[in-house]
Structures are given as structure tokens and as C-alpha cells.
Amino acid sequence: MPTLASQIDGPWLRGEAISAEAARVVREAMIFEHCKWDPQVGDVPVLHPAALILRRETWNELAQLAENMDAEIREAERAILASPAALRELGLPWSLRRALVSAGATSSAADGSFRVSRFDFHHTGEGWRVSEVNSDVPGGYIESSGFAAEMAAHYPSATPTGDPAAALVAALRAAHPTGARVGLVHATAYTDDRQVMVFLSRRLTAAGFETVLLAPDSLRWRNGRAETLDGGALDHLFRFFPAEWLPNLGWRSGWKNFTRPDGTPQANPPSAIVSQSKRFPLACRRLGLRLPTWDALVAETRDPREVQAAELDAWVLKPALGRVGEDIGIAGATGPRELVKIRRAAHRHAPHWAAQRRFSALPWNTDRGVFFPCIGVYVVNGLVAGVYGRVAPRPLIDSHAQDVAVLLEPTSPASHVSAEAPVENFPP
Fold first, then answer.
1. 278-318 pLDDT per residue, tens
2. Does residue 426 contact residue 415 with C-beta atoms inside 8 Å?
3. Together in a domain, 344 and 407
4. pTM tops 0.85
5. Which of 150, 123, 147, 20 minimizes the C-alpha distance to 364?
6. Are residues 141 and 236 in the same domain?
7. DSSP string computed for 33-82
8. CA angle (256, 261, 265) in 5-degree steps
9. Are 407 and 335 contained in the same domain?
10. Alpha helices, DSSP H only, in 288-412?
């Protein structure tokens, strides 16, 4: 087993990899027990062989910051949903924007609905910075719950930061104490989406819920309530299908029922797309909203038209609704040809892009080399629930980044636990 020597490297300990045999055991467990069916991209393993061990004071800080930001963006979302002008700042499809306006500012508060967000933290010379919040359909449940637990077995006394999948189960149990029939809505043609839904289905089934895995166009709606095509009622929907894709289903699918505040409870409702947009800070600015923690941690954000061409190297360009690090333009990290293409697209279609002032992330040193971590902190129903970690050899976290287990260093003091947090969210 790797030793956990007190080699402090900023907010974490220096990483020491597990043995090749231990890595093989973890890989097989991830495939057969945790539904991680794609443990490599091409010839590159997806699962990083060294766990990132956070110092406990670091985890306490990140947990509190994430909970603070979660509360702030909820308030901001309500204000933006009540303002058609602010909604237009977000770069949303017009039909989705119109559906959200029609549903009203309460569209995020359907009875029994709950929210899951993931805040992506990066360590810099100026402290922590947040690149974005994944508040619509955050992923990483297999890795943050399954991979962290498997890797923790190979690091003496280190513990996972939490279990987001268990937090989801607890939130559903709070909404449906006697169990329920849950529709796991996803793009069924994508294996990487399907594996997440099968993983969560197993967790929910073990907790006494009935689950149905289905595509968003395989629902039938009756007075705003979701049913399967054979007429079976669904008590709750867990949507793992991006809100901006919903209009692509066509009006016959009844997709606008997802936005109804009086409809079937959901996690997450489509109104979560408000803070998911990389142009969210621009909508807040239009309304004069102050979000103290968010504003302190998220880099300055502008419309690309507000950035002079000569200054572009100091800015990161992102699609307003981009996911998995796609089409992110960073001078020196993005390939030259791709960077030119991205800058051209951001100039031509500026209302659908955002420019974020660049920050310099600090590396994590391991015995396998230098990596740049992204610490994705989950908040479920306002309470911190765990971490999805990713690392890359360059300061750009995209689809080629590796998953890394994020654990807590051994010994006291105890890790951060919110007073009202369900016990199963956290390690003993």
C-alpha cells in the first residue's frame, strides 16, 4: 500500500500511486461492481492510479464555500427566471427560454423536487477559483462514489469525502418516505450515460425504490404528470439529459411538461440551466445581483465582444452551454488550429459564448508526474455530499482528463459535516 507520509503539497499530500496489481483489482471492481464500462479512452486509462489526498482543513474550506455558493445561485436563479431580459443573456434556445418564462419564476420549486450541483474548484496562487457550476445534469456519480471507495481501501486510514449517490438516495427518501417509482431519464443511445443510470438504479433499488430507465421521448404526460408509455405512473424523475436538448425532441414529445411547477417532482428541474450557463454572471450583472462567495471565486466573465483581440490570450473562451470541457479556448493549452476556430466562433456567435478571465492553476505533484486537478464538490439539497476529481497533464480539464479518487487525510479533526446532513452522505 502507498504510504501517506506528511509531504504537504499545498492543499493536498503528494500523490503516491498504488501498485499495478492493485490498479487491476480496482479497474475490475469499477467495471463489474460500479458500472464503469469505459475505463479507458483509446489507449489511455481513465482511472488515475494515485489518489488525491486532501488536507482536512482544505475540505472544510471547500465544503463551506460550495454550500455558500449553492445558496447564492438559488436566489439568483429565481430573480433571473422572473426577468425575460436577464434570461436572454444566457444563450438558451429560444423555445426553452419561452417555456421557462411561461412556467414562471417558481419553475424550480415543484413540490418534492430537489437540486444537485457540482462546483469545480481549481487551486491557484491567489487561492481557490471556481471555473463553473454543473447545476443542470452534473455527472461523476460512479467515480465520486464507487471509485473513491475502491481507492480508499488502498490508502491506510484515508476516507472518501462523501458519497453523492447515497446523498441522492437520501434526498429521494426524504421526498418519498415509503418508496416510489423513479424514472431515470437519459440519452439511452450513449453508453457513458447509460452506465450512470444503471449504477444509480442499483443504488435506488437496494434502498427500496422501483426504477425505470427510459429516454425523454419515451414518456407520456397526463395533466403535467409523467407516465411510461404503457400508462404506468412515475412518482419522481431524475433527469440526466441536458435541458438545452429538450426542444430537439419536438413538440409531440411534450417536453415542456418538464418545466411545469405543478408536474412530477424532478432532480433537477430544467430551470437549473440558468446557473449552468457560462453567461450566468452576465445575467446577474444585468440585474445588479450580488453573490458574495460566487463573485469572489469565479473569474471575471464578459461577453466576448467586450474583449479586445489583443487581450485574448488573457481570457478563456467557453460556449455558454458547453459540457465536458468541449470547445474551450485557452492560449497555450488548446491546440493552435483549434484555438483559431474557437476564437472565430466566439466572435461570430458571441451571444452564445462567454469570456472568462484566465487564472493560473497550480499543479499536483505525483510520482507519475505533474497534473492539474479539478475538485468538483457536490451539493445535494443545500448540503455538501462529496467530490468528483479529475486531473490532466495540462491546465485544461476535458474529455481526455483522468478520473482521480479524492480522499481525506487520516486522523482528526473530523471532516466538515453540515448539521442537517444525512448520515449516509459521509464516511464514519
1. 999 999 999 999 999 999 999 999 999 999 989 999 999 99
2. yes
3. no
4. yes
5. 123
6. yes
7. TS-----EETTEESB-SS-EEE-HHHHHHHHHHHHHHHHHHHHHHHHHHT
8. 95
9. no
10. 292-297, 336-348
